[in-house]
Structure formats: C-alpha cells, structure tokens
Design a protein that fits this description.
Largest sheet: 9 strands, mixed
Distance between the termini: 38 Å
Order of helices and strands: EHEEEHEHHEHEHHEHHEHHEEEEHH
Structural class: alpha/beta
Shape: globular
Number of helices: 13
Number of strands: 13
Strand order of the largest sheet: 4-3-2-1-5-6-7-8-10
Helix content: 25-40%
Length: 373
C-alpha cells in the first residue's frame, strides 16, 4: 500500500492503514508480504513540520499480534506525491522482497488525467485552493479524496506510468476521479487489472479491514470482492453517504476499446462537438467551486449523443463488456445523479481550453483515438 497522506487526508488515511494492519495480515513465515509506504503529517493541518516517509512490513506472530517492521526510512524532504518517490518505494520493495507477482494499492487525492496543478482563472478559486479549503469545511461538506496532492505537488499520470518498475497483477486506486479511460490507457502496460472510481471517493475510502484477506494468503486475489465490499458498504447506507462508484478494468482489452472509439470519433467528430454538454452524464460535481474538475463525462453516453449508429454502439458495448469487468454505481453521488453509467469517464473537449487540449494530445488515449486533433 502506498499511502501519500502528507495532506488534509492524513487522519483518514492513517485510519485506513490502521484498519488494514488490524485485518487478516500475513504471518511472519507467510510467503505473501504486505508492505506499507506511509507518509502523513505530524498533526492535522500541519504542513510545516517535516515528516519522514517510512516503508514497513506488516505481519502478525503466532498469537495474532501485529507488528510493523520498519524496512526503510526516507528523507523528510521527499515528496510522496511525486513519481520519483513512487519509483523509489517500489524499486526498494522489488529489491528487498523479490517476488513472482506484485499488486499495489494507492491512496491519496486524485484528479484523474488532469495535468499537475491544473487551474482555471475563471472558477473563483483553483482546484488546489479547493483542496486546501476543505480543512475549514469538514463539518459542513462531505469530504472526498480529490492522484496525490502535497503542498502543490501532484503526480502526472504519464510520469506515474514511467515510475512503476514492475508489472502489477492489480492496481487499486483509492482516489477521486481516477476512473477515466485516459488513466486506464496510460497504465495498461503496467498492470493486468485496474480498479478505480469515475466519481470522487468519500474519505473513508476502500474497506481496509477486509482488504488483506481479499488479496493475500489465497491462491488468486479476489479483486472483484474488493470492489463489491466497497460498493455494498456505501450502497447499504440510507443517508448522504450512499455515494459510491467503482470500476474494474481488464487492461488487456483496452486496445480493442480504443479501436472502436477511434472509429466512432472519426465518423462523428462534428456531432460530438455539437452535443449539449449539460445533456451528457457527468461524473464530476458542479458544486463547491470545482470548475477545473468538470472534465469527466461518461464515455458511452458522450459517443451515443454524438451520433454513434446502432451498429457502432453494438461494437462499443461489446468492447466495453470485454474491458469493464465490473461497474457499480449508486443512484446518486452526493449532488450528481448517476443513471447513464458505463463505468469509464472520458474528456469532452472544451474548444477554448488550448493549453489543456495541447496537454491532452500527449496522452496515450488521444494518440490511439484522435479525440483532439
């Protein structure tokens, strides 16, 4: 588990780590190894006191007592929300605990495929300002995990893909808005399965008490059950915490999805551009000054409204059916109604966002589909 929590999520992610380690962790003789990279603030809201990130092994003895055996302490100047820190931790894990297979759980803030520190001047406050302002609003709004954020440092999704030194059996991302086709396609050569949420994620995040038992000390990690645990926990609520989406993607099927989307985009480019934006299923919310984050629309709904034919939609459904192994969504995510959900978001280009669109052209998904030319 990579817990990048030197931010306002520090107490929430610390609790997640605690629950993970109190769950069914492997014993000291088990060939399965649970490693945790942990970086949090010394106290809530204190971003001036340096704290050293720590990599430790969590295991239990015969009596069931859980230990956290420190493997490595990193300099307190390291920025966990950076590709360099991710690469350093995973390289150390690979070197110190060589294995035939690896899996990764990443927990922090997230902003999908958007470039590092992306802001827009006309939103009355940037997304970074929004994140830092959450501390003052914890009592009045529902805090969400909106990939890493640490003192204005974030991880560019392209750099994250380059930073992962091994092939992962699974990559579980407990962070907001990461369930977009752009993220999946950027990471497809680094993991077999990816799990993420196309909407935001409430700060409680995944169900960490059961996580180790789903992934370790069994012949095949039960990734689907991890997804079901998460969704059922929130879907069973009767209050405003009944808010969750989760998607599981088979990365080996993403090229086929890209091929179908490329054909539809090429045939209906003008139709897609003419779609009324407000009519398309969105995964982002429109409240709390989140304008920079309003870039996440349902992939199928956008292409369908853009004019895809019945035959094209049939091919799209087939490709999505192969690629999206599991997709769950509550009827609403806080203020956003969810009734046309394929499980993957995609950018609906804004023609006037030239700088953002130039960045988007560098993403592997755009190179494969030609969404922006």
């Amino acid at each position: 588990m990579y817990a990048a929590a030197y931010n306002n999520l520090s107490p929430d992610i610390e609790q997640d780590v605690k629950e993970l380690c109190e769950g069914s962790v492997p014993d000291s003789c088990n060939p399965d190894i649970l490693l945790v990279y942990d970086h949090h603030t010394s106290s809530y809201g204190d971003y001036s006191t340096p704290v050293s990130p720590v990599l430790y092994r969590a295991y239990k003895d015969k009596e069931g007592t859980v230990y956290r055996d420190t493997v490595k302490v990193y300099p307190d100047t390291d920025v966990s929300s950076s590709a360099e820190a991710v690469n350093k931790a995973l390289t150390d894990a690979q070197r110190l605990f060589p294995a035939s297979s690896y899996g990764l759980v990443f927990s922090s803030h997230g902003t999908g495929w958007l470039p590092e520190n992306y802001t827009e001047e006309d939103n009355g406050g940037s997304d970074i300002e929004f994140l830092s302002a959450r501390a003052a609003r914890r009592a009045s709004i529902h805090l969400t995990k909106s990939l890493g954020h640490e003192n204005k440092h974030e991880i560019d999704i392209r750099q994250l893909a380059e930073a992962i030194p091994m092939k992962l059996d699974f990559f579980l991302i407990d962070a907001c808005l990461m369930g977009c086709v752009e993220v999946a396609y950027e990471l497809k050569d680094k993991c077999d399965l990816i799990v993420f949420s196309p909407t935001e994620i409430l700060t409680n995040g995944f169900i960490y008490t059961d996580l180790a038992s789903r992934l370790l000390d069994i012949s095949v990690p039960d990734i689907k059950q991890v997804c079901e645990d998460y969704f059922n926990f929130y879907n069973d609520r009767t209050d405003y915490y009944k808010a969750a989406t989760i998607t599981m993607v088979d990365c080996s099927k993403l090229d086929a999805l890209a091929a179908v989307c490329s054909e539809i985009i090429s045939a209906h480019r003008s139709g897609i551009a003419a779609v009324n934006r407000s009519s398309v299923q969105a995964y982002h919310r429109d409240d709390y000054g989140m304008y920079p984050l309003r870039k996440f629309y349902d992939l199928k709904d956008l292409l369908e409204k853009g004019g895809a034919t019945e035959q094209e939609l049939a091919r799209l459904d087939s490709a999505l059916g192969e690629c999206v192994v599991l997709s769950r969504a509550t009827p609403w995510f806080l203020s956003r109604k969810l009734d046309r959900v394929c499980g993957l978001s995609m950018y609906f280009p804004y023609p006037d966002k030239e700088e953002l669109n130039d960045y988007y052209k560098t993403l592997s998904w755009n190179k494969a589909t030609g969404l922006i030319q």
